[in-house]
Structures are given as C-alpha cells and as structure tokens.
Design goal:
cytoplasm, cell projection, TBC1 domain family member 31, five-stranded antiparallel beta sheet, alpha+beta, 32 strands, elongated, Cyclin A, domain 1, Rab-GAP-TBC_dom, repeat, disordered C terminus
Length: 805
C-alpha cells in the first residue's frame, strides 16, 4: 500500500459535448477514440470499460491503451486524465466528489484518482491477479470489496488494511462478487455454478445456492431494494430468488423470446417503482440487448446497432441512462426513458392497427408472422448461426450448449441436407464389409448398432475406400452416439469431416498417412524438442503418439463431455487445427509421458482416459495454431474448408490412391470366392453324413423296440449281400453297416444298381484317385459350374436311393 499523490502539473483541458434531445433510436451521445499515427493514417482505439457515478452526472470510460476519459452530463464537458496504464476495473467512490477507483493491470494495484486533476491520492496493493470486480458497502462506507478470478479482498479504507481475504481453487474461480444493496451480505457466484452468501459483519457463510437446470452462471443482479436477486447463465433461463425467504420464486424461459443464452443482466430502475425494479436488461449470447418486463413477461424492445454488435452494457444507478460498448470499440449512450417510449410508439401502435382484435403483445404477433413465412425464419436462423458469432460464443463460454449442439454443428459444416442422394445410398443396403460389424465391437444397444451399420455402409457405397479402412468404425462411433437421432445429419457431418479435417489421411491408404504424421512431428519439434527426444530415445514413432488418437477421433483419451467440447473447437476452426490438438495433448501430458520408460507403456497410455485440464489443453492448441512458423505449419498443405454440394448426388471423394484400393478389394473378393467354393464342398459332405447318422439312429430305435432276430438279419443282409463274414454281435454289425454305407454314399451314384464287385471296386478307386489328385491350374467358371451340377446330381441320387430302399 502506498499513500501519496502523483501529478505532472499540467492543466487538464476540457472540451464541449453535444447531446441529442429526442433521437429516434434513443442514442443521445456516441463516443469513439480516433488518433493519427506518424504516417497520417487514422487508427481507432477501442473502449473497454465504463462506469456511471451514483448521481449519474459523470461517466468514466477507458480504452485498450489505458486512456481515461471523464464525461460530465451537467456541464456538457469531457476531458482526458493522465494515463496510468491499462485498466481492468473502474468504480466511482460513493459520497465522495470526484473520486474514482482504477484497477491497474500493472502490478494489479488499485489507484484512487481525482477526476478533476488526475492525482493519485491512494494506492492499494495486494492482489496477485487482474482485478475484475469493485464494490462498496452502503452501510459501512469505508469497506471496499475487490476481486480477481482467483481471490477476493475486503479492505478497511480507514486504516488501509485487509479485513478479509477469500482464496479460491481451480474449477471454482470467482465469476462475480458484490455487496447486496442494503450492505448486509456479500454474494458471490463461482465457475462451478454455485452462489455463496456471507454476512458482512461476521463474514460467516449463511447460504449456498445451487440452481437446478442452470449451467455456466455468468451474472447475478439485485433490485434496488435488495429483496430480489436474478441469476443468469448460458442456459436460456432466468431464476428469480427472494432474499427474504432464500427461495426461488420464478423461473423464466427465454427461448420464447429467441434468446439462446445470457452474457449479462442488469435491472433498469424506473421512477415511482419503489425499488422493486420491473425492467430487466439482458445481453444475449448473440450480442443483442433485450429489455424485458418481468411483471407481464413481455419483451419491450431489442437493441442491436447496425454498425456493430454489443460487447458490454452498463446501467446508471438510477436508470436514467445506460450505455453499450460495441465490438468495434464505440460507446453508445442511451436515454432509457426515450428508448422505452420509442419502442411503444414504433412497435405496438402499428400492430394494433393491423390486428385490432389481437390481445397479445407486439413481440408475439411478430413471431407468429415470422413463423408463417418459412423463408424468413430460415434467413434469421442463418444470421444467428453465423460462424463468426458462434466462434465468439465458443471463445467466451468454452463450449456450445448441449441442447443446440447438433444445430450448431450443422451450421458450421454447412450440410446440404440432400435427402434424395442419401436415400439412394441407404437403398443399397448393408455393405458386405460391415455385415458382421458386431463381431468387432461390443455394442449393447441394437439401435446404435443399426445406425453404425447404416452409416458405414453409406460411406462405403459413397466411396470404395471407406469399405477397406479398418479404423473407420472406431472413428465414426462417437459421432453415431451424438447424432444418431438424425441419420441424414450424421452422414453428412461425418462425410464433411472426412473431406476436411481428415485431409491427406488416405494419401497412402491402406498404409499410414506419412505426410500427416510428419507435419505433427515437425510442429512438436518446434514447440517441445525435449519431448520429441524422449520419444526418439525409446523408439516411439508418431504412429503411437499421434496416429492412435487420430484414428479414434480422441474418444479413447477423453471423457464424453470433454470429447464434445473438443469437437466444438475443432469444427469451429480451420482443418489444420486438429493436428495442433494432437501436439497440444502430448505437451499437456508431458509430465506423465516422461515417466514412462517402455514403448508398451506409452502405447497403452494413448489408449486410456487420462486427467486433463481442458482449458489449458485447448488454449495451447490455439497458441500453436497462431505461433507456429509458416515453414512447418500444416496450413500450407491443407486445403480450405469444402462443404458437400447440394443436389441429387454427393460429389466424389478422390483423396486416395485408387489403384491400391482396387487391388486390395480384388484380393478380398478372391478370398471370398475360394471360401465359398470350399464351403460348398463341406456342406455336401455334412449333408451326406447327416443322412447316414439318421439311418444309424433309426436302426438303434428299431432294434430296441423289436427283438426279433429275423428283422435284424433281413436289414443286415440288405446292405451286405456278397459278404461272407458273419457278424457275431450287435456292435460289430453296426460298425460294419456304417462303413459299407459310407462307401456306397461317397463313391456310388446309384445304390440300387446291381453291379459286380470288381466293377464297383474299380469305379471307387478311379473316383478316389481323381478326388485326391492335385490341381495345378485354377478351375474355370465352367468347370466350377459343372462341379456344382455334379454335386447336386449326387445329392439327388442319394435321396432317390434312400426312398427306393
């Protein structure tokens, strides 16, 4: 902590401003900071933060260069203060004229500035990270609460000392912390979606709130009287809590207002509402500001400037003004009363004239009209699903919402929805290569198995390559689990991924993709040579540390939730990003990998789910994507994204060596033909043995039922006409009959013919020699056909002989 003042002695010059009286859009003032460089070119510096004072007479704004501006609405003046570095948080000191707290990014200090002179009257030091939140207590004016993501500090300004320090751990960092309006409690929301409340005087925890059905809590806000609190997050839902009973009193579904997620909320106080604020400002995930009436649950208006989308917004303490910081860096300052009044005149009145009998509000009428026009709805969806907007949402929240993930993936991959072309592939049936796919995978769900077979068959019918790639079932299986409710979307998503993210994978098919593995190795060598040396010492190749996780689409090394988050980022970036993910995974897991001493241990490591920090994992991949030198960057060798063509058929997949694949297919068909021929011979033999066994069994049954020796002698004499040996017992007779029966079936075409013993023996010998004679040449199709006819004739003659006997 430091006390003192710093002032350069220069007099601060003030400039006049003009405020619009009754603008149609409600913007009374627009701020932008444009400077000229040494070459005379104009350059715009973006504003980053802004805050109103309690009397809403002054506004403080800072830009990305650390310039701090003060706007006075009473005197209609503005001036620039001395630059003290880039600011991370701002807040006016209540009940003190011209005092402003500025959190500096340099050393994370808190400076108390005089807004008239720019002097620093007090500096507080003690934070270890950038300060993001500043709050003052209204009951104890000397108590100041400041917080970063990692810690919160309660200061006693009278003695400039720390009164209380709250430290957090990874995974439960602070999203927002503040005093309640009455000052009795401290309320904080954390990244693990919990809200914690402490008493201000004792700093004891009094309540913990875990809202059900609300993920990724981003913001909490109180009414002016402090009796109600609203909680908002990525899920399109608002939860209102009563601070008197500590219970949820209302839940508002935002999907009916076309709000898919919430970045920030704030109450807009109105005159004569007694502090029970009814109007809530909501900054949605598509960077549009919505004003919602909580009593009637009607949407008052939507604010979306044409020049740029909204990045942040701030409401003055009494609700007279609010401002929006745009993505391009400008600041629009609105008069809230004019915005609400103009919205009633422009939106509600025309709707009442066109629909005089309509009792619903203007917003619902507009939605009904939009739904009636299908093309208009599709255009709005395309605008909302713009890849740039989706990527901003992804970078802010880290993942896409589960409920809309399939729709977002469809938009990112630009799937054409070719129903006719897909139906033609499905009508070809199950591909022979995947007919018995269940023998390779243990899949308990018959629905999942059916969808997997259908997807693989469609891919194989689309391109012969996908009928011979052994890794393909494991690669597509996680996508089947996620998108199996929409088979058409599933096929088109996987096909698009194979065309883009899997570029150069099949360049040497069915051999490993040498060029892809070389790219990964080069990037790894640039960013972590020590890890690559460790692999080289053990003899570990890129086929182990890269190809294994690529061929399973990372599904073996990540949990289901982690896998979904990863592919959100892969599909939102250029095709080369997937190779950076492989390098990032190896480097993030470096400490665990370097403890492994054998190739088998490392190979097993890349087939197991290992704990990983997803934020660090993805962040490193982005760093590699941007900081890898152009000489080794995979972007040089990858083509830009190409979607499937819309029409009656899909374009051909040509990124593979056709001659190699055709040769492999021909060999597999040759094996199948030879297997079928061998199977036919075996089936013939088995059918003949079955006839023999039935005859022997029948003999046993007849002999047990009837002990008449004449009947048995008659049966034996029938099959043993010229034999001179008389059998002595039943077992010997059975074995002899079986032996004679086998000879007659295998080597005689007609058992009823009366031929001499010599003729039968010569015929048997000749046929036996022919059957065991080695075949030097492969039989022609005509010979195979004649063989099949001969077998059929043999089986028919055997059946005729049985009936004649």
């Amino acid at each position: 902590m430091e006390n003192g003042s710093h002032f350069d002695g220069d007099k601060i010059e003030k400039f006049d401003i003009k405020i619009k009286k009754k603008p149609k859009d409600g913007v009374i003032l627009q701020l932008h900071h444009t400077v000229r460089d040494s070459h005379g070119d104009c350059r715009r510096i973006r504003f980053s933060l802004a805050v109103f004072d309690d009397n809403q007479e002054k506004l403080a704004c800072t830009d990305n260069a650390g310039n701090l501006f003060i706007i006075d609405f009473c005197d209609l003046k503005f001036w620039k203060l001395v630059n003290h570095g880039i600011c991370t948080a701002l807040h006016f000191v209540p009940d003190r004229l011209d005092a402003l707290v500025v959190a500096s990014s340099d050393k994370f200090d808190l400076n108390f500035l005089d807004t008239e002179t720019g002097c620093v009257s007090l500096t507080l030091s003690g934070h270890t990270d950038h300060v993001k939140h500043i709050s003052f207590s209204k009951t104890k004016l000397n108590n100041l609460l400041t917080a970063s993501h990692a810690e919160a500090i309660l200061w006693e300004l009278k003695n400039c000392t720390k009164y209380f320090t709250l430290n957090t751990h990874l995974g439960s960092q602070i999203q927002q912390i503040m005093f309640t309006p009455a000052g009795d409690y401290l309320v904080a929301c954390f990244q693990n979606d919990t809200v914690q409340i402490w008493r201000h005087d004792t700093m004891k925890s009094v309540k913990q709130i875990i809202p059900t059905g609300l993920k990724h809590i981003k913001n909490i806000e109180f009414t002016m009287n402090g009796r109600a609190m609203v909680i908002a997050g990525l899920v399109p839902k608002l939860i209102l809590f009563s601070m008197d009973t500590w219970k949820a009193v209302k839940s508002i579904d935002l999907t009916k207002y076309n709000i898919k997620g919430v970045q920030h909320v704030a109450f807009v106080p109105q005159m004569f509402d007694g502090g029970a604020n009814k109007i809530l400002a909501i900054l949605s995930s598509n960077c549009t500001l919505h004003l919602l009436d909580l009593d009637t649950q009607d949407l008052i208006t939507n604010i979306c400037p044409q020049s740029s989308s909204i990045k942040k917004f701030v409401v003055s303490p009494t609700g007279k003004y609010f401002l929006c910081i745009l993505q391009l860096g400008e600041v629009n300052i609105y008069n809230s009363a004019l915005v609400i009044e103009n919205s009633k005149d422009v939106i509600v009145a025309p709707e009442k004239k066109e629909l005089p009998g309509c009792s619903t509000n203007a917003y619902r009428c507009n939605i009904q009209q939009a739904l009636a026009n299908k093309s208009a709805v599709e255009q709005k969806m395309r605008a909302c699903m713009d890849s740039a907007r989706l990527r901003r949402i992804l970078m802010q929240y880290g993942e896409y919402p589960d409920k809309f993930r399939s729709i977002i993936w469809k938009s990112l991959l630009i799937t054409p929805k070719n129903k006719v072309a897909y139906s033609a592939l499905v009508d070809k049936g199950i591909h022979p290569a995947y007919k018995n796919i269940e023998k390779q995978f243990t899949i308990h769900s018959t629905v999942t198995l059916k969808n997997l077979k259908r997807l693989l068959s469609c891919l194989a019918h689309w391109c012969p390559l996908f009928g011979v790639m052994k890794f393909l079932p494991g690669f597509v299986f996680p996508f089947v689990k996620v998108l199996q409710k929409d088979p058409l979307l599933l096929f088109e998503c996987v096909a698009t991924i194979l065309m883009n993210q899997c570029q150069l994978w099949f360049e040497y098919a069915p051999f490993p993709p040498i060029s892809v593995l070389a790219m990964i190795e080069n990037v790894l060598a640039e960013h972590d040579q020590q890890l690559l040396d460790h692999y080289c010492q053990l003899g570990v190749t890129s086929q182990i540390y890269a190809l294994k996780i690529l061929e399973t689409a990372f599904s073996e090394v990540l949990t289901c939730t982690e896998w979904l988050v990863l592919w959100d980022h892969i599909l939102s970036n250029e095709p080369a990003y997937i190779l950076m993910i492989v390098v990032s995974y190896n480097i993030v897991q470096k400490n665990a990998i370097r403890r492994l001493k054998t190739v088998d241990q490392i190979e097993k490591f890349f087939h197991l789910q290992n704990p990983i920090n997803m934020k660090v994992f993805l962040k490193k991949a982005y760093v590699f994507l941007n900081d890898t030198s152009e000489d080794v960057h995979p972007r040089r060798f990858f083509n830009s994204f190409v979607s499937l063509e819309k029409g009656g058929c899909y374009q051909q997949f040509t990124g593979y060596p056709k001659a190699t694949i055709c040769l492999k297919l021909a060999r597999e068909r040759k094996k199948a033909v030879s297997a079928d021929r061998y199977t036919l011979r075996e089936l013939t033999k088995k059918s003949q043995e079955k006839i023999i066994n039935e005859g022997i069994d029948k003999l046993d049954i007849d002999s047990d039922k009837d002990n008449d020796k004449d009947v048995k002698d008659k049966y034996y004499k029938k099959h043993r006409r010229k034999s001179t040996v008389h059998l002595q017992n039943k077992d010997e007779s059975r074995s002899r009959v079986r032996e004679e029966f086998l000879k007659n079936v295998f080597f005689t075409s007609d058992l009823g013919l009366k031929i001499s013993k010599e003729t039968a023996e010569s015929m048997r010998t000749r046929r036996f020699r022919e059957s065991i004679r080695p075949k030097k040449k492969r039989k022609s199709p005509e010979k195979i056909h004649s063989l099949e006819k001969e077998v059929e004739k043999l089986m028919k003659s055997c059946s005729n002989s049985d009936t004649s006997d």
